[in-house]
Amino acid sequence: MARLIYSGLMSLDGYIADRDGKFDWAEPDAEVHSFVNELQRPAGTYLLGRRMYEVMAVWEHPEDFGDIPDYIRDFADLWKAADKVVFSRTLQDVTTARTRIEREFSADAVGRLKADAGRDVAVAGADLAASAIRAGLVDEFQMFLSPVAVGGGKRFLPEDVRLRLELLEERRFGNGTVFLRYANRSG
């Protein structure tokens, strides 16, 4: 069975976006981005909410970025090679290959996807991840803590869940970012 992994960049106070919806304070440098690429390599499917999909869809056309470093091109290649499932009641069309829309989150359907997948499944977007966390589907959490506190906004973890986590890995980066990887032992 594939693992369902929730990964994200966040502030030290637990937010993936500030009160204004901005997350530029968490933009990874070359070292962090290259590490993210290696973590994403085993993922064969991305589960995305509509807003996260709209943010990530730019990776379909890295040529629009102009002259880009190899680690950026590598991430775009990983994005394009993966299947994508967008959970949205309002999105009418997708603009990326290998992408389908699901109108409702179904814990049973995601559980079947995990059971049938030959590669890991990544969930992105705090609201969608919260649904998967509440359903007990997330196997692993990968957190990149940026050295900044933003004082409020969109939380990485939902407020209404209790989790027991086991630290599997930690790493410090030159820009002050800290990576923490946890297994979900909530049972």
Question: What's this model, at a glance?
Answer:
With 187 residues, the chain is an alpha/beta fold.
Please give a handful of descriptors for the protein shown.
two-stranded antiparallel sheet, alpha/beta, eight-stranded mixed sheet, 5-amino-6-(5-phosphoribosylamino)uracil reductase activity, DHFR-like_dom_sf, 187 residues, Dihydrofolate Reductase, subunit A
List the helices and strands and how they pair.
Blueprint: E1 4-11, E2 15-18, H1 30-40, E3 43-49, H2 50-56, H3 70-81, E4 83-87, E5 99-102, H4 107-116, E6 120-124, H5 126-134, E7 140-146, E8 153-155, E9 165-172, E10 178-184
Parallel strand pairs: 1-6, 1-7, 3-4, 3-6, 4-5
Antiparallel strand pairs: 2-8, 7-10, 9-10
Helix pairs in contact: 1-3
Domain Bacterial bifunctional deaminase-reductase C-terminal: 4-179
Protein name: Bacterial bifunctional deaminase-reductase C-terminal domain-containing protein
GO molecular function: 5-amino-6-(5-phosphoribosylamino)uracil reductase activity
